[in-house]
Design goal:
By secondary structure, this protein is mainly α. Helix content is about 45%, strand content about 5%. Helix 1 crosses helix 6, helix 6 packs across helix 7 and helix 7 crosses helix 8.
């Protein structure tokens, strides 16, 4: 579809997950070692598991720190990404461990003079990270889409974070009533509501596996073999250049047939 627009908006829940993993991995004696124990004890995950803010257990106890939010939004790499037009993508290279170490952890340490203050500072930082993710979603929709859509489909682990979805809903509804002059709330749906898969499969968790199965199916359909060559049927395309920045339409994947 030529009207397709695709772009990453920001970290979703990547940065909060990364922050929790970084804190839990801190050595004994570190200034935040008590916080490390608190996170592990609260979540009760097996040793070595990746951490996440389950049911907003940490971020729900904090408040959005507006000065900190503004600092992160003006961080040069984030500011550059925000203004770059689609198609574009981002990930841990911008919002991962390096960002956490240099721009997130110091804010917990600087605001915590004792154990109780450190704990509250941690919750406030977590809350602000969640709001940052939602703010970048809403801002991107306002900048790059003709209007705020009626329905937003969410997937991935972030769809289980109640505060993230609440913030996205609030910010998009505000945008509709403001700049767009539209009425009514945005409907937030999950991917599993829209595609038909067997009941034992969670479509939201399996979205990448499902996508690659579709790519493989279409790739095999695109091939016909004779005794001398493989003929490519150009009717089959599984990429969208407008979404990825690719120079042309192709059928993705390589088929390797043993001799």
């Amino acid at each position: 579809p030529t009207a397709c627009i695709a772009f990453d908006t920001g970290p979703a829940n990547v940065t909060t997950n990364e922050l929790l993993d970084v804190i839990v991995a801190l050595p004994p004696g570190h200034a935040l070692s008590s916080l490390s124990s608190y996170i592990s004890d609260t979540l009760g995950f097996p040793t070595g598991s990746s951490m996440y803010d389950r049911d907003a257990v940490f971020s729900s106890g904090g408040v959005v720190l507006k000065p900190l939010l503004d600092t992160w939004l003006s961080y040069p790499a984030i500011a550059t990404f925000r203004s770059r037009p689609p198609p574009k993508s981002t990930g841990r290279e911008l919002f991962g461990a390096q960002f956490v170490q240099s721009n997130v952890l110091p804010n917990i340490l600087s605001n915590g003079s004792n154990e109780a203050d450190t704990l509250q500072s941690f919750k406030d930082v977590m809350r602000t990270l969640i709001y940052l993710a939602a703010f970048l979603v809403a801002e991107s929709y306002q900048r790059f889409l003709p209007s705020i859509p009626d329905t937003v489909v969410v997937s991935g682990g972030g769809r289980r974070h109640p505060l993230l979805l609440q913030d996205i809903q609030t910010l998009l509804d505000t945008a509709r009533k403001g700049g767009d002059g539209m009425v009514g709330s945005v409907v937030i749906s999950s991917l599993g509501d829209l595609i038909n898969v067997p009941s034992h499969i969670d479509a939201d968790d399996a979205k990448e596996a499902i996508a690659f199965a579709v790519f493989a199916h279409e790739r095999m359909l695109s091939l016909s073999r004779n005794t001398t060559t493989t003929v490519y049927r150009h009717a089959y395309f599984t990429n969208i250049p407008a979404a990825t920045g690719a120079s042309k339409k192709v059928c993705l994947g390589q088929v390797s047939i043993p001799q």
